[in-house]
Amino acid sequence: MITGFSNPTVKSLRALREKKHRKAAGKFLAEGLRLLTDARESGFLPETLVMAETRDTHPLLAALEADVHAARGEVIVTSPDILSKITGKDNPQAVAGVFTEFDTSLASIDRSSSPVWLVAQALRDPGNLGTMLRTGDAIGAGGLILIDDCADPFSAEAVRASMGAIFTQKVARAQWEEFLPWLREGTGQLVAASLRNAVPYRGAPYAAPCFILVGNESRGLPEEYEAACDLKVTMPMKGRADSLNAAVAAAVLAYEVIAALSP
Amino acid sequence: MITGFSNPTVKSLRALREKKHRKAAGKFLAEGLRLLTDARESGFLPETLVMAETRDTHPLLAALEADVHAARGEVIVTSPDILSKITGKDNPQAVAGVFTEFDTSLASIDRSSSPVWLVAQALRDPGNLGTMLRTGDAIGAGGLILIDDCADPFSAEAVRASMGAIFTQKVARAQWEEFLPWLREGTGQLVAASLRNAVPYRGAPYAAPCFILVGNESRGLPEEYEAACDLKVTMPMKGRADSLNAAVAAAVLAYEVIAALSP
């Protein structure tokens, strides 16, 4: 039971809201019983479980607590005020957990494990990032590869928007100069939505493993990145706008790809 | 030229960040030259144009300023600090405009003007709302109908996420009890993504005008709303999650519908 705001554990948990402290600690925070249960059922237990003393009893929370104890993890009970301080939310969920960040090297990716992968370049919005993870989970993608300077997949907002997919999808981070040689070491079709020299996205010759590449929210993909793609496809744009939200574009394209690749 | 933070015009513009003040004034704020140019090219001029004294010259800004003057609108020049105060952003765009809110009654909707309409029920996230408007623009939808208690389409976040589509898409707001009789007064197929008694979304018998209905981000659609639909379709869910982000689900379904309805 922790009751003091200045407790060192509270301070170190609070610090995980900031990217530099997450990076230094190699840890991140996930909030809410649903997310923590998704994690547990995917084989991930928090090393520290923080619960509000005002929490309601719930069989899933009891199961989580028992598993954390069994794994010799730490269980902390605290006040809603302190939990609010830790999560930075006025109405925090009654439970949060601290997880070790995953290995996000390209070397950790087994491209043969799925026919579809999502790839995002310079994606700045953590909500879009989490939404892409969630879409990846839904379509049975292998994971999300983040190219160049992207939002942090372990930020609270990305974790929340992923709706648990942060625990089911592989995440890798790489610079373009590192990604492209890695891709060309094995089989893999790089596909981008584009307005230049593109074929209609419906009925395009998709091939597994298919890597669906979307660009930055405001600038799109650099021209030389597009030029390196094996296939450029175009989606109907009937209005004034010339682009879709990045997470939306990835999803529409990904659903087309899995339909094309399904037997 | 306005230099004082306590200037009544500054105060009234600042107030537009809050829903109750927007509603009372019947006005909303749009920021940035790109958005204001989208508005102008769609036939909407701000009644008040606010520019930072530090703005760069730009032919599109000059054109906008000239049009606002010609329409006897107000042009205000102010400091970046005051513009920051008005927009609530640390690094505000150099220009913002005040627009009159549009008529959002169902009576203002001409369903025959487009084969596809997006409908959202109890959508709470203004980013999702704006993204749906943007998708609607891209697919040539008629507009977005907001059912029950939704986020405000005129909030800064929704307007920004719409990427100008707030000026090209019709927006209507109605309670379900009002919407359903309106829909049944004319032709219109109500389609929902559902897990209950649904057919695959690819190859489903879509018919124009098709109204694509998505539910609240966390609760989905109430059962009785689903029961009132003419067609329930299901999308592949291969992972742990049983749902997609609301704006993503709407987009994937909408692209399928326009492909099916295209000659």
Automatic annotation (TrEMBL), chains A, B:
InterPro entries: Alpha/beta_knot_MTases (IPR029028), MRM3-like_sub_bind (IPR053888), Ribosomal_eL30-like_sf (IPR029064), rRNA_Methyltransferase (IPR051259), SpoU_MeTrfase (IPR001537), SpoU_subst-bd (IPR013123), tRNA_m1G_MTases_N (IPR029026). The lineage of its organism: Bacteria, Pseudomonadati, Pseudomonadota, Alphaproteobacteria, Sphingomonadales. GO terms for biological process: methylation. Keywords: Methyltransferase, Transferase. GO terms for molecular function: methyltransferase activity. This is RNA methyltransferase. Belongs to the class IV-like SAM-binding methyltransferase superfamily. RNA methyltransferase TrmH family. Residues 29-105 form the RNA 2-O ribose methyltransferase substrate binding domain.
